[in-house]
Amino acid sequence: MDKKILDAVLKAQRNEITEYHIYAGLAKQITDTHNREILEKIAKDEKEHCQFWKTLSGRDIEPDRIMVFWYIFLSKIFGLSFALKLMEKGEILSADAYQQLKNHFPQTSALVIDEQKHEKELLSILKEERVEYAGSVVLGLNDALVELTGALTGLTFALQNGKIIAVTGLITGIAASMSMAASGYLSSKEEADQNEEKSPLKSAFYTGVAYLVTVFLLIVPYFVFSNLYVALASMLSMSILIIFGYTFYITTAKGLKFWRRFIEMAAISLSVAFISFGVGTILKKLIGIEI
Known about the structure:
Low-confidence stretches: none
Strand content: under 5%
Structural class: mainly alpha
Largest sheet: none
Distance between the termini: 78 Å
Number of strands: 0
Helix content: over 70%
Number of domains: 2
Oligomer: single chain
Order of helices and strands: HHHHHHHHHHH
Number of helices: 11
């Protein structure tokens, strides 16, 4: 066998044995019978694919232990949906590799069909709480980012005192988080008839906690840095980082487009901050506040 082809076969073999261990590991840690059976079936298929490549390479290949650990770790921290959607992207890449090898090994066609079937199964497999309540988390994060970035930016230019700005932002944020939790509860209660499985109390909890966590992350720079402009820049950078993080999570877990949502939310938050900067500067000059 040509060395280039052999290398491609060995790569495919390692990919399959790695994915077998990932799927098998994920299946062991979930209690839902339906989801576990699907993952076990996919793991079985991956193992059979590996055996096929082994007959061609004539070698035993160890799985990528780091990748196995990584995806199982991700599923524990961020949920099975998030980990599986990342795995799905890997499935697409391996399917592309199989298309290239099909010219040399016609049997690869069956493997391509299996990989495509895996993708469809993964799209419909899950129903887990953290994804079901993602809308409540996004509601809390969005409101906290838009309101607090604007408020803190305005306060920075109006008050010129880091500690007072931080305490003011903290008081405002805590009050707003409780308000948002109450709004989330009432909103979810109105939808209860259409979605009986969704708890209004859990919706309120996720909304309030997401808001509160965002508040703390945004005010930290004002406690850490004595220079107000460094604190402001750090706060705005933190807001962009938060937007990037939760947009990546939501778009991955739900199979949505990332960049459009990220740019839209970042633009909204920064626009509000810019407007608040102008308002804070004008009010400072009009009222003559010096702290």
